[in-house]
Amino acid sequence: MEHIDKPFARYWWFASEIKKEDIRYNLNWLKENGFGGVELAWVYPLNALNSELYQAYTPRQQWLSPQWQEIVKYAMLYADSVGLACDLTMGTLWPFGDSGVTYEEAACIYGKEERQVISRSWEYPKEGYVVDHLLPEHYIKYFNRMLDSFPHPETVLSQSYFIDSWEVETRGLWYEGMKEEFIGRYKYDISPLIDSLYMPGYEDHLYDYMKLISEKVILFYNNYDSVLNNKGINSRGQCSGAPCDIISAYARLDIPEGEAMLYEPEYNSIPASAAILSSKNIVSAETFTCLYGWPRNYIREEQTADLKMVADALFANGINHIVWHGKAHNPVGQDSLNFYASVHLGDSGNLARQLHEFNCYLSKVSQIMKNGNPYTDVAVYIPTEDAWIKGIMPDEKQFIWAWAFYEMRYIYFPEILKGHHPTWINGEFLDMAVYENDQLKIGNATFNYLYVDAAYLDFKSLQRISVLAHEGLAITIKQRPVEPGTIKHAEWGQMINELFDLPNVQREFRPHRVPIIQGIEIPPYRARETDEGLYIFFANPNSENIKFPVQYGQSYTENTRKMAVRVNYGNNKYDINLVFKPYSSLLYRLKDGKTEQMDIEFKPEIPRVKKLPDDFRAPWLVY
User: Which domain holds residue 41?
Assistant: First the structure.
């Protein structure tokens, strides 16, 4: 698959009369500032956010009309002519849906007559429905209607269609025929329990419900990818927020995409792991969203040093393609419009002075971190069962748009594994993996260990772990797991006892090989194996453990940090003295006992620091 190493930008089209000269102006600006592609995103007219004007109609090319098709086709061809890839969002606003979705085809919640509405779309003030994401006969019809309505000009650069993060109402999510299917599988009716699922005492029922919903959601992503691939189009997308086994969902897409900062940089290790397990080379991230808070703190005042801190954290968590969020469509010669949740890309923004230079830095790191395959050593079982059983997060962990543990927002690799370059794995890929030559092999990965720290394990996963243990794989199981769900297996206890009796199964992690990185302090890092040697990117230590939101000027530092590490690779030991000047990250190539430091120097402007008022009340938190 052809790809471009330069960053992309989400290119926001507010519903209006889009003109060719304005398209040329915006795309030329992006090209001149070091971007390699755009993602067209169609959203509401600007008056939709103005309480005094919200019912006024803004003239525009009608959604999916011949006039709309013509202007989109022009944008695609012009982008291609200047060397910009042009991806398309598979719909207007988010999630998928429009006025062409019928009531019967719309997403529904058990017990509610109304269906989920999509309002602030390109069609605003006309409303439509969010398409049902659980039944293929509904969403495939939508996919095909979009494909039939979108222009398909021949272009030199390859194209992907994008799906944004899950924003379908999820609590009580339902579909026609679910009652009967659920009874057929679990031998009881879940519908009377829907309102009780998240209450204490119903954990096993919640697990049953989540398991069935997960299968439908994973099939949705699988069919999305298949429909596009059959038309010669790649799928790129975010599965964040989806009520499913998140590794399996991300693995269905050609280009898994993470995001930051509405998700922490560490979350991006999940799509990166899915890419490794499914042999995908590119892992993108929607980057810099709501950097300083939701919805629009410090817009046009963003500081490059703060952005670099976030980007470096993403690189260390496996991202290798940056998608800026984003660029608002502006009239020729103007820079008056911006999208509320983005950093601002335009001449009047604070980023403009260093934008091209910063994009060159991002391009250089991205290119190198696409070479070869990620180094792998320890496969860590992702605790999906625990998340499903736990249900609702406590208020202090919630955002107003994020309420349940199933989103996997707050899972982290164990600190003891830091030097071993861990990768998440789930039951599906454990089942597909092959144990040979004392190693576990799957996709682009070869693991020496399996690490499991889960209070609950699906029976099928326990069976597979047991088989691998009897074959000889070195396995750490931190706690004695319980079987989730209402279907219990009589042999569970015996299987657990036999597992812990095996000499290669331990309660504590006791590696029989030295880790790839050793040191008193280990900064965030990412390693790639190539024919040219091992590349290791070390992120500046300030990039570690960044939380939402980034504080204005959080990256500020006057200190040079020094860390001595040993890299154990092949039959060689490489002792490296890491010297992190303020705002710098480091990249090395190791081969045949020789260490080469790569030039990725970029010096952002020294950031200013602003503290939030003492009485600041975060609008995204649950109080």
Answer: 8-371
Q: What tokens were used for 449?
A: 């260990």
Over residues 405-444, the pLDDT tens digits come to 999 999 999 999 999 999 999 999 999 999 999 999 998 8
pLDDT (tens digit, 9 = 90+) per residue, 533-591? 999 999 999 999 999 999 999 999 999 999 999 999 999 999 999 999 999 999 999 99
Positive or negative, the CA dihedral 441, 533, 526, 477 is positive
CB burial of residue 11 (10 Å; 0-12, 13-18, 19+)? buried
Q: What percent of the chain has pLDDT over 90?
A: 96
In 218-343, where do the E strands start and end? 234-237, 255-260, 284-287, 321-328
Distance CA 214, CA 218 (A): 6
Tokens of 573: 């030991």
Considering the domain architecture, whether residues 235 and 268 belong to the same structural domain is answered as yes
**Rounded to 10 degrees, what is the CA torsion of 224, 290, 170, 165?**
10
Among 305, 297, 300, smallest CA distance to 330 is for 300
Bridge partners, residue 538, by sequence? 525, 586
3-state secondary structure (DSSP) of residue 539:
coil
Task: Report if residue 201 sits inside a domain.
Answer: yes
Q: How far apart are CA 302 and CA 33, in angstroms?
A: 16
Element of type H or E holding 304: helix 304-316
3-state secondary structure of 587: strand
495 contacts 538 by C-beta, under 8 angstroms:
no
- 310 shares a domain with 163: yes
CATH number of the domain encompassing residue 297: 3.20.20.80
Instruction: Specify whether 85 is located in the same domain as 201.
Output: yes
User: How far apart are the C-alpha atoms of 199 and 388, rounded to whole Å?
Assistant: 13
Sign (positive/negative) of CA torsion 503, 508, 510, 515? positive
Same domain, 200 and 349: yes
Is residue 300 a part of any domain in this protein? yes
Dist. CA 228–CA 224, nearest whole Å? 6
Tally of structural domains, the chain? 3
- Same domain membership, residue 528 and residue 496: no
DSSP-assigned letter for residue 293:
S
Domain C-terminal end among 481, 506, 531: 506
Question: Domain boundary residue among 354, 371, 388?
Answer: 371
- Same domain membership, residue 345 and residue 279: yes
- 385 in Cβ contact with 340 (< 8 Å): no
